[in-house]
Design goal:
Layout lengths: L6 E5 L6 E6 L6 E6 L1 H12 L4 E6 L2 E6 L20
Antiparallel strand pairs: 1-2, 2-3, 4-5
Length: 86
């Protein structure tokens, strides 16, 4: 078994964040973890591509991931500025 076979991507039960975990003999007990949420999401964006969709699954469980770019809400107000020396 290589070292990479002892590494997995999981969702941390308390924080609900995606983590990279290293396991020992027990595949259910992580010896080390680190947050990998941003890397995970960036990889999804790179893999799927904005405006595209990916289908995956097996048997009766089929899924579709569609990626859209979020546009910030339009505003017609000027940004607030503060003159600290007035």
């Amino acid at each position: 078994m290589t070292n990479l076979e002892k590494v997995g991507i999981r969702v941390a039960p308390f924080s609900q964040r995606v983590v990279l975990a290293r396991f020992g003999k027990d595949p259910n007990v992580a010896l080390d973890t680190r947050d990998a949420m941003n890397e995970f999401l960036r990889a999804i964006v790179e893999y799927v591509g904005v405006g595209n969709e990916v289908q995956f699954g097996g048997g009766d469980e089929q899924f579709v991931v569609t990626l859209k770019k979020h546009a910030p809400p339009a505003t017609d107000r000027c940004p607030l500025t503060v003159d600290m020396f007035a």
